[in-house]
Amino acid sequence: MKKVIKSLSKISLMFFVLMIVSFSCTKKIAFMTSPIVPAARGDVQVKKDNNKNYVIDVHLSELAEVSRLSPPKQTYVVWIITEENITRNIGQINSKTGMLSKQLRASFETVSSFKPIKVFITAEDDASILAPSGQIILTTDSF
Question: What is the dihedral of CA 95, 96, 97, 101, to 10 degrees?
Fold first, then answer.
């Protein structure tokens, strides 16, 4: 009888862990191919943290230096479109030495209280702008 109870406890624990993992709010979305930087690849992971904020994690590879774009720019800016259809600047990806490696890789992570439904990256001259003005380099579909 003790063995049966012990086995049921283990099964219950495994079921509980499996439920937590399967119901976690992590979404991984790939960026679409860019007509401006076709070799650029990347994805975005969005998950809800314990404070009900959204952790947005961007991974990029083969992203060209902004100074090599036509016209040249100063920085890449990461944007989200919120559930309320508001566009928000959530930060910049520095493309200076050290931020993008020789393999042209970059990552970016931030936390937002706004639920993103789309993420995109523009090339800009000023990282603190409030609305996108440059070319959209990478974008996701709505999710």
Answer: 0
